[in-house]
Amino acid sequence: MAQERVRRQVVTIHDVARKAGVSPATVSRVFNGGNVTAARVKSVQQAAAALGFAPNRIARSLRKQQSSVIGLIIPDIGNPFFTSLARGVEDAAQRTSLSVVLCNSDEDTDKERRYLEIALGEQMAGVIVAAASRDETDLGPLIARGMPVVAVDRRPHDADVDAVMVDNHHGGEVATRHLLRAGYRRIACITGPEGASTSEERLAGYRSALSGDPARASLAQSLVRHADFRVAGGRLAMRELLALPEPPDAVFVANNLMTIGVLEALREAGRTPPELGVLSFGDVPWASLIRPSLTTVELPAYDLGRTAADLLLQRMAGGGGSLQTVVLRTTLRARESTAGPVED
Predict the structure, then answer these.
(1) pLDDT (tens digit per residue) in 47-65
(2) b/e code 69-85 from CB counts within 10 Å (16+ = b)
(3) How many distinct structural domains can be found in the chain?
(4) CATH number, position 291
């Protein structure tokens, strides 16, 4: 019995739509009194009854004409960056008595699509989304329905929505120039998945910093690795770089979790910063506590979330005008891990 109750609690319009053989939007129209054929109404109602789906929240939203819930879709709840971003969203939402539903897409576009469909079916007041993919994340259905949407940290390609971004290109360029000034010559870059806007922008900043030296820029082609923004991905990429005939003498790591994996791989190989310089894009609470302390590019995660929520609230309140893109700058925190290579 306990297992049955749990199962019923997590049934969504997506499940009903799949069982009825219709779209989630059709399920929503059935329960909202939209224009749907009698046959489809019957099919949806039968599917809902079989699954134990009760659209109470939709009914409440209809009576109030305005949902009091906004959705926040992030790609990795285990990343402290997104935890801080979520706190910024929640603090801003609480000022207007809005509740935040947190959804973790796990960098999975199918899972993300399911959450977007749920946001539509549950008639949320708005959605803030850090896209799992620049090219595959589709915000079109939400935009078509007039739902306020704000992209945060990552913006899907061709998405006409408000956005709050970090200047990733500038941050990547500043980080790489810092390593150059410290005396490192073979600077590697471990960036995130191909197709993620943050991955490509930070990589572009790295390449821009090296572009003034053709020989160094050419060398960098063999020192770039794409990973998964996770600890394991950073560890594997660093192992590959260390196995090169001429391994790098420094590495720019494009997010904080991959940096943990990089440090693990260096420890395994008996290497330590700053002999091999390590610079992390994204701060971590312990960056100044470890020895040697870790040089980081500090991201305004909390401000990203708070600003995204403020933009969403403006749209929900009927704020018109052209779409806005707010770009926040990063801050380099130079510490011991990039003090310079050991002289022979």
Answers:
(1) 888 887 766 544 444 344 4
(2) bbbbbbbbeebebbbbb
(3) 2
(4) 3.40.50.2300
